[in-house]
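Incident review: delayed structure delivery

Summary: a single-chain prediction request sat in the queue longer than the usual turnaround. Root cause was a stuck worker, restarted by the on-call engineer. No data loss occurred. The affected request and its eventual output are reproduced below so the record is complete for anyone auditing the incident later.

Affected input:
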Amino acid sequence: MLLCSKLLRNILILALFLAIHSSSKAQPQPQPTPKQSSATGEVPTVDFCEMVTHPELYFDRTIRITAAYQLGVEGSNLNNVLCVRSHDDSIGVGFEPRDETHTKLINTEVRKIRSGKFGPQPRVTVVGRLRNQSRRSFAWYRYRFDIIRFEDIRDDVTERIVSYSDSLQKGITYRGRVKSDETSGLALMSPVRIPPHHAVSLEWINLTEFPLLQRLSAQSEKQIIFRVMEDKLNPVEPNRWNRTFRLKILLIE
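Output delivered after worker restart:
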């Protein structure tokens, strides 16, 4: 009797298991839904220096870049102090309006830039397309970036090229004239203005990369773009300091 009871119980358990298994097979299992990428349809942000180093990767693609907007009489250019473009290698500014309303929006932003409110070379973040088109006239450029829209305009002195005028500041990029110097190899045509009891020296950290500047004669001078990488002030005795500017040459113009 006990044996029959156990056998009956096992048969019932097996039948229940088979019923559940059969039901689960009959019901279609839900498939995992692929996650939608948050970046789908978004405009990729590309570093300006990356764009100009490998322009062929970005021709006619809609991208976002940040650069200095350099106003010109016949045309404007985009630049970046970390990879300064020469005149022959510049990136010109064009526009890609979609309709009359869009054209008015772009013109409004351009008027803001030309007003001087954001400085002589405002930093802009724009969306547009790099075009493999050059121009050799009053408006001179190697490639043209056609702006579709402006996203940000601001005054940022660290992003522009400042005309050197007797003073230097760490993190700023300058345009100035230089001459040969027996001590440092290169000197600014106009000496750095410093407080009393300071002695100043210039250290050109990459002068060896510019043989033309190393071979300057005593009567020659060149205009260059350079960046102040470091400003070191060391006391040598009470009320006397040595000040050393470490400068990086970016371009000979």
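Verification: The CA atoms of residues 226 and 249 lie 4 Å apart.
Action items: add queue-age alerting; document worker restart procedure.
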